[in-house]
Design goal:
With about 190 residues, the protein is mostly helical. The protein is built from eight helices and two strands; from the N terminus they run αααααβααβα. The protein folds into two domains: about 1-45; about 55-185, no CATH class. Strands 1-2 form a two-stranded parallel ribbon.
Amino acid sequence: MISWFFKESLRDIFGQDICYIFNLDLIYRHFARLLFNSYYSSYFKFKPRELCSLLGDKRLSSLTMYEKLTLAKNRAEHHNRAIKYKETKEENTRILSDFLEYLKKKNVKVVIVNFTATSYYRQFLKDHFVEEYKEIITRLREIHNFDFIDLNEYSCINDNDFTDFDHFGDSGAIKVSEILNQYLKT
């Protein structure tokens, strides 16, 4: 009632322009755009997302097949070496389990998303690494009953959706957003 009275009174006094000045949706969009541009430009230093990849100023699509396979193998082997840190894995599993327990007590619905990578990268990721990850997720799901989205199961995502071997570019980010939005609607 007060907001209607306020709008009507202001419109009577100042005309239609006052509705533009006090348009909260417009103000929100304006400041959201300013905030995004401020963050985006300072973080990415005015570079498109694709140029902030691990490939430097190269695009994944511009690499030869040999370069793609060599660089993807190096990247996957870097991650494969993490398997040897058993204590770290156990500690991280405990931390995640504790966090899931906390969220359960707060009645928060948890959805964990497993992001995918390019086919070049996935072929060099050790099966043992993948299996161990899946076992941990399965065990935690049995205990904490959370939802799990595995983006490896979505055929709409392809190698062109990445800035490098394991980070999404704009098209991948849009596809993932659409997948998550669709999931949240159901």
